[in-house]
């Protein structure tokens, strides 16, 4: 009798050891939209996850790595062989070049309780803004002129015309003409100057229209912190 019991345990042992839920992201652990345009914002995809194990899979959390990503799940429990869908949305506004974001999927999969899905895209802007997408006024003092600069570059093979420049506040001095033609692969330094009259947080913006249908408008914000001056009365 003991011999038969031992034999039964030996037969069932592999089942007990390997009987467990297992989460798999169908198609791989990354999703790449490839090269995209700003006008395609937001990017969307439907990602399938599957229980390839032999026990009930329970999804306890789906956590995007940043606020620019959402991924609601249509079901939290999957039987063996069953699939669920993640409706992924990635906001690319404000991003340029290669973008990689992640989503953490937590479950009762004992071998991989936290599985990551990586979202990738290469955001192509006909006109890029470098070295940052905003004007950084690093040194600002009451009564003294502060300067910030960014560079516009035409990344296309055709001329792009920039018009209708709007500046806030009105006394922000910007070297943009009423009409600027950026030739193919040409760059232009946008220089902004401002003389603050009070201390505190400073912000500004430059808005312009372009002739490129994939980037009809450009907005360049600006920031700075104005310090007191020993010379001027604040």
Protein described:
- Helix content is 7%, strand content 53%.
- It is mostly beta strands and 234 residues long.
- It has 2 domains: 23-123, Immunoglobulins (Immunoglobulin-like, Sandwich); 127-227, Immunoglobulin-like, CATH 2.60.40.
- The chain has a 5-stranded mixed beta sheet with strand order 2-9-8-4-6, with no helix packed on it. Strands 11-18-17-13-15 form a 5-stranded mixed beta sheet, with no helix packed on it. A 4-stranded antiparallel beta sheet has the order 1-3-7-5, with no helix packed on it.
- It is elongated, with a radius of gyration of 28 Å.
- Give the tally of β-strands: 18
Stretches with pLDDT under 50, minimum 5 residues:
none
Total individual domains: 2
Sum up the overall morphology in one term: elongated
Based on secondary structure, the structural category is mainly beta
- Which architecture name of the largest domain does CATH use? Sandwich
CATH topology of the largest domain: Immunoglobulin-like
Enumerate how many helices there are, as a single number.
1
Please report the distance between the alpha carbons of the first and last residues.
97 Å
Strand order of the largest sheet: 2-9-8-4-6
Specify Rg, calculated over alpha carbons.
Answer: 28 Å
SSE sequence, one letter per element:
HEEEEEEEEEEEEEEEEEE
What is the CATH first-level class name of the largest domain?
Answer: Mainly Beta
- What is the makeup of the main sheet? 5 strands, mixed
